[in-house]
Design a protein that fits this description.
Helix content is 72%, strand content 0%. It has 47 residues and is an all-alpha fold. The chain starts with a helix and ends in a 12-residue tail after the last helix.
């Protein structure tokens, strides 16, 4: 019974780690993508 609980605990730890990694990737890395865009230049000459 104890070994079953240890295995279950490890599985839950792995799932929690993957979920945290997913949300980290989704929030942090996608936000970085939007900041890499260059702003469009407004009208006028750039001499």
């Amino acid at each position: 019974m104890e070994t079953f609980l240890e295995i279950l605990r490890e599985v839950l730890k792995g799932i929690a780690r993957e979920v945290c990694a997913y949300f980290f990737r989704k929030n942090v890395l996608e936000n970085e993508k939007t900041t890499l865009r260059r702003r469009k230049q407004k009208g006028g000459s750039n001499k």
